[in-house]
Design goal:
heterodimer, A: mainly alpha, B: 27 helices
């Protein structure tokens, strides 16, 4: 098992490296820009390198257990808290997502002209370290701790580098996120106390609770805390109002990492912890999740249509798409949870891409107002192509990962009689998102420039994407296309894990189907060979 | 090379071409166009190899694309007579249109983007042709929608193209909304979306055919084939370059809707079929009337396409998918020809598209004019030409089963000849009516050769006797079946007489009414209300425009208002609930500095840790 140990240590370095790089940058305010960049590149790239390495060494046969387990004492052993790290089929994709978005955001941030770059990069690195820790934690306490650890730099960055109106937005965001974190913390502590497992380790909680499940009432109450706590963090309707405004004022790097990755913490918590451990609670709150998620899709979808500001539009559209993930969770099935996972990864990539490109657009147009642009594609064709790719991914065009997420969730909803009707209202989202996505593309890039924009467009100030912007966006697009064409890079491992955690629905096919089907399949196979 | 390998090559060639162009040839128009044309030729060659390799047998292979629990998506090919026919047509017509584009787009600065787009389109279209299950069809279905979006919007900086490309995509999404729901319902209804498996299941038990699922899947067809009420995007799509109109919006993509129906014809119960027959008939007549209100040569052809798609769906609805496929193929030949010839005219006249500003082109561009005339005659169903055989079969099928549909479709045939006559007489005869038309020159050889080849096919493409055995299967079966219906001979003669009368009358009347080389629309002068009524196209665009701007957008603004002032202002923050409480607490705690929140936060965490440790 020597190999395992090295891998576990690698996993630990994925968390420590960005933190270390951040600390070095904080202390070294007088570094030359080249040194600073070299340190930052290391910090941003290391987690992804480790992620890819561990992905290649991932052993799918370890079902129910974790790969690369590492357990360090913390001084809190008596209440069952260990720095317990590891990855399974559900956390692996998110770990890689964090690494990918982290690298893209980091590269973009290194060349953007922020004031006090060393501080900016250090905070971003802390954020990344926290994110890697969140998804690598088996211990529920550290899962939560790393999230808070990543959240604090977000607030600081909005406060220090945010755009116009940052105060109001930052306060609102802080209140909401604190409240959400508080509720979910209460839920996690309640889970710890009520379970009686005397451990924060997810593995032990799981084993313990599957042997002696909690009573329905307890499950309902704890699930409520976790659902609304995590829900607020993921901008579940109607607790979403912090998100669009917060992202609109956040500096690009922070917006990319928060909207792309940190926000997935809540969903991940529901997916990996709340729903499998509290099945009765999930069942009880099912109608709530469905109606609130439909609120995300339809209500917020329509609100997105009314937005005139590019960043607000992206913020609302990101809120809208979270509705699909909640619907996937609500199904409480392997398919639904798998769809939610695929969507989380793809959405994280696409929303980070779009936030980044919206800043690139702003640098060229000096406005986020969609009604004051137009014709930018002639001057910046690569930017236009990338933005079209991002928008298409976000509205669920096949070929990008988002499609598989949405489609699988629709399939999950149609599986049982109970949820079948939900497909119809939920699928209206594919029309709504196409309308606002394409409207934005047309307003920014196509047609004739609006009167206010003519002069600027014709000046020489507008150039196409620069190399670092291309690289940063290219990483995200490549990942989106990869998950779009080969969804199995994640889905196979996730499937094995989810089959353990979630109930399989009984087959709904009438008996006659299967009889006919099996003979037909045989003939079909003969044809194949 | 086995059949399966060559099918894979068919699909990968255009994808590779698109990737090469996107990564390496963005500024190298000539290289990009060469790659794309070679890829198109490669597709056709590989298609022929595949057909040879299959030797009349069905080929099916599949791989797992995604698996989660009981939900399994596969990617695979189902290659049978129908897909072989479609593949050959798409490959060959696609190649000719690529060649034509070499000449037509020679002076375009964004040639690389254009040819890259064509390659993506070929990839997506061939995916639909070969797909063996509904989910894979949907994937490529959306991708053709995307390539259509990209190519309609080719002339980026015109408002018209920007609006049209957006409209095409969104209207198609409305159809796909139903299609998507139909697919997921079908998956759990049949336990699979594989075409041959579903066929086996419904063949074993006819009761499993579900009208609901069939109707939902039909929504996809309505969007893609621009049937009523989602037809509004197709005329606008003419804002794209003319080869795109020929390839995507006439010969292949819009016909993919009909092809899709043919692939899943076993899923349709009779009530849905009757609905489709009536839908098609309505569109055939409606679009025929609309064409009289148009002066733009491409828009006239676009309405003609709508009308002919109506004929195909009528044939399908009447229970003759093979006849629908037959008309799909012959239509692809003559409509691609008409669009390319129109493109040649537009190229010759320096992008003049108004037929009343052309005139005298028969002398200026004789080859273009003669091929256009052949296409027109084939479309009108002149005896012996391609369109005759397929339209004849549709009319016979209608006549034997459904008299009202027969009468309407015959009226449609008359309308077709009328508007095509109007177009030909006004644009090609008489004297040039504008500066551009008087300087028109015949187009270069790269454009003329595809015209001539397509003209030959428009003449001979309907002689089913000459078709290779592997391609004609379903068509021949359906025609056989038609021949053996009672009263076939009587109906055949009746259709021959009525059909011929329709085109003769249509062409002659339009010549006498509109007059060769007319400068103005005589219908507009003589009966303005009628003309304006036809031009209004029943106000569909106005109604949709009103809905989008005045209802949908206002509703969205209203919800946005609610979101900002009620959900945010009162419901959440103003409530005496937890949020308000926390808000109050934090207000009393903070000293006007955002950082203090963070410190409180940290303090909380430390406190927690301390409490936890204190339990030691």
């Amino acid at each position: 098992m020597g190999n395992l140990d090295t891998n576990s240590l690698f996993l630990l370095t994925a968390i420590i490296a960005p933190l270390l790089a951040g600390v070095v940058l904080l202390l070294g305010a007088r570094f030359s820009p080249t040194t600073m960049r070299a340190i930052a590149v290391f910090g941003f790239a290391w987690p992804l390198i480790i992620g890819l390495l561990l992905y290649s060494r991932f052993d799918p046969s370890l079902i129910g257990a974790y790969n690369f387990e590492l357990c360090l004492p913390t001084g809190l052993e008596s209440i069952g808290i260990y720095l317990h790290l590891g990855l399974n089929g559900i956390s692996m994709p998110l770990f890689l997502l964090a690494g990918t978005v982290g690298l893209a955001a980091g590269l973009y941030a290194m060349y953007s002209k922020a004031e006090r770059p060393h501080l900016y990069l250090a905070l971003l690195l802390f954020m990344l370290g926290g994110l890697m820790g969140t998804f690598a934690s088996i211990d529920v306490f550290f899962f939560y701790f790393f999230h808070e650890f990543a959240l604090i730099p977000t607030f600081l960055m909005i406060g220090m580098w945010g755009g116009v109106g940052r105060r109001g937005a930052a306060i609102e965001m802080t209140i909401y996120l604190t409240l959400g974190a508080l509720l979910s913390l209460l839920g996690l502590i309640a889970l710890y106390v009520q379970s009686g497992a005397d451990s924060f380790s997810l593995i032990e909680l799981r084993n313990y609770l599957s042997a002696q499940p909690l009573s329905d009432t307890v499950q309902n109450n704890i699930f409520a805390l976790l659902l609304f706590g995590f829900g607020i963090l993921v901008s579940l309707f109607p607790f979403h109002s912090w998100a669009p405004k917060g992202y609109a004022v956040a500096p690009t790097g922070a917006a990319m990492l928060h909207a792309g990755v940190l926000k997935k913490f809540g969903l991940y918590g529901l997916l990996q912890i709340a729903a499998p451990l509290l099945p009765a609670g999930a069942d009880h709150w099912f109608p709530w999740i469905v109606w609130l998620a439909l609120g995300n899709i339809i209500f917020i979808g329509l609100v997105t249509l009314a937005q005139k500001d590019l960043k607000m539009m992206l913020g609302y559209s990101s809120v809208m798409h979270m509705g699909y993930a909640f619907l996937g969770l609500a199904c409480f099935s392997v398919i639904g949870a798998g769809g939610a996972l695929l969507l989380m990864v793809a959405h994280g990539l696409s929303v980070a891409l779009l936030f980044m490109l919206s800043t690139c657009i702003y640098h060229r147009s000096q406005t986020f107002d969609l009604s004051e642009m137009g014709g930018l594609a002639t001057k910046a064709p690569v930017l236009a192509a990338f933005f079209v790719a991002g928008s298409m991914a976000s509205i669920g065009l096949p070929g990008f990962g988002n499609f598989w997420g949405e489609f699988t969730i629709f399939a999950a909803l149609a599986e049982t009689e109970l949820t079948r009707w939900i497909v119809v209202p939920a699928a209206t989202g594919i029309i709504i998102s196409a309308i606002y996505g394409l409207r934005a593309v047309a307003n920014i890039f196509f047609g004739q420039p609006k009167a206010a924009f003519v002069e600027r467009l014709q000046s020489d100030q507008i150039t196409d994407l620069q190399a670092f912007e291309k690289l940063s966006a290219g990483i995200l697009i490549a990942a989106l296309v990869l998950t779009g064409i080969f969804p199995r890079v994640f889905s196979d491992d996730a499937n094995r894990e989810l089959l353990e955690l979630y109930p399989q629905q009984q087959s709904h096919l009438p008996v006659i189907h299967s009889a006919v089907l099996s003979t037909d399949v045989d003939t079909h196979k003969e044809l194949t060979h | 090379m086995t059949a399966a390998q060559s099918l894979l090559a068919v699909l990968i060639t255009p994808l590779l071409s698109a990737a090469l162009i996107a990564f390496f040839c963005r500024r190298l128009g000539t290289v990009a166009s060469t790659i794309s044309v070679l890829a198109a030729a490669g597709i056709f060659v590989f298609s022929l190899i595949a057909i040879r390799g299959a030797a009349g047998e069905d080929v099916s292979i599949s791989w797992t694309w995604l698996r989660l629990g009981d939900f399994e998506v596969s990617m695979g090919f189902l290659f049978n007579g129908v897909s072989a026919t479609m593949l050959t047509m798409v490959g060959f017509v696609g190649f000719l249109i690529h060649v034509f584009s070499l000449g037509y787009m020679a002076e375009d600065n964004a040639r690389a983007r254009f040819f890259g787009g064509l390659s993506i389109f070929m990839f997506s279209m061939l995916g639909i042709v070969l797909a063996d299950n509904l989910i894979m069809i949907f994937v490529f279905w959306e991708l053709v929608g995307f390539s259509s979006y990209m190519l309609i919007g080719h002339y980026l900086n015109t408002e018209e193209a920007a609006a049209a490309s957006k409209k095409a995509f969104i209207v198609n999404r409305v159809g796909d909304f139903g299609f998507l729901i139909g697919i997921v319902y079908a998956y759990w209804h049949f336990g699979t979306t594989n075409l041959s498996e579903m066929h086996g299941i419904v063949a074993g038990n006819r009761e499993l055919i579900s009208a609901c699922i069939a109707a939902l899947l039909m929504c996809g067809f309505i969007g893609k084939s621009a049937q009523f009420p989602l037809h509004v995007w197709l005329p606008d799509a003419m804002a794209g370059p003319t080869p795109v109109s020929a390839l995507i919006h006439a010969a292949t993509m819009v016909a993919a809707g009909v092809y899709f129906l043919i692939r899943i014809q076993f899923l349709f119960p009779s009530e849905v079929l009757t609905f489709i027959a009536w839908l098609g008939t309505t569109v055939a007549v409606y679009a025929g009337f609309c064409a009289y209100g148009q002066n733009d040569i491409k828009k006239i052809l676009a309405y003609s396409t709508l009308s002919q798609l109506g004929y195909m769906s009528a044939a399908f609805g009447l229970g003759f998918p093979g006849v629908a496929l037959f008309h799909l193929i012959t239509h692809a030949f003559f409509k691609a020809l008409l669009f390319l010839a129109a493109g040649s005219v537009i190229h010759g006249c320096h992008h003049e598209q108004d037929i009343f500003k052309m005139g005298g082109l028969l002398k200026k561009m004789p080859i273009t004019a003669i091929t256009f005339l052949l296409g027109t005659l084939a479309l009108c169903g002149v005896y012996g030409l391609a369109g005759f055989y397929s339209k004849d079969a549709i009319l016979i099928a209608a006549g034997l089963q459904h008299s009202p549909i027969f009468i309407l479709l015959t009226l449609g045939a008359f309308l077709t000849a009328g508007y095509m006559g109007r177009l030909f007489w006004i644009a090609f005869l008489g004297q040039p009516k504008s500066e551009a038309a008087s300087h028109a020159k015949e187009s270069p050889l790269t454009m003329l050769v595809p015209l001539i080849v397509l003209a030959v096919l428009s003449v001979a493409g309907g002689w089913i006797g000459f078709w290779p055995e592997q391609l004609g299967g379903l068509i021949r079966d359906n025609l056989e079946h038609l021949h053996h219906l009672p009263d076939y001979d009587t109906m055949h003669h009746r259709v021959l007489i009525l059909g011929s009368a329709a085109w003769v009358l249509g062409l002659v009347l339009s010549l006498f009414f509109y007059r060769a080389g007319a400068k103005e629309d005589r219908l507009e002068q003589q009966a303005a209300p009628v003309y304006h009524f036809l031009k209004s196209r029943l106000w569909f665009d106005e109604i949709y425009g009103f809905y989008v701007a005045k209802i949908q957008q206002r509703f969205a603004l209203f919800l946005s208002f609610i979101d900002v002032f009620i959900v945010k202002g009162i419901f959440v923050r103003g409530s005496a609930g937890i949020v308000g409480l926390v808000g109050m607490c934090s207000r009393s705690l903070h000293d006007g500095n955002i950082h203090s929140y963070v410190y409180w936060f940290l303090a909380g965490l430390v406190l927690l840790w301390a409490v936890a440790s204190g339990l030691l």
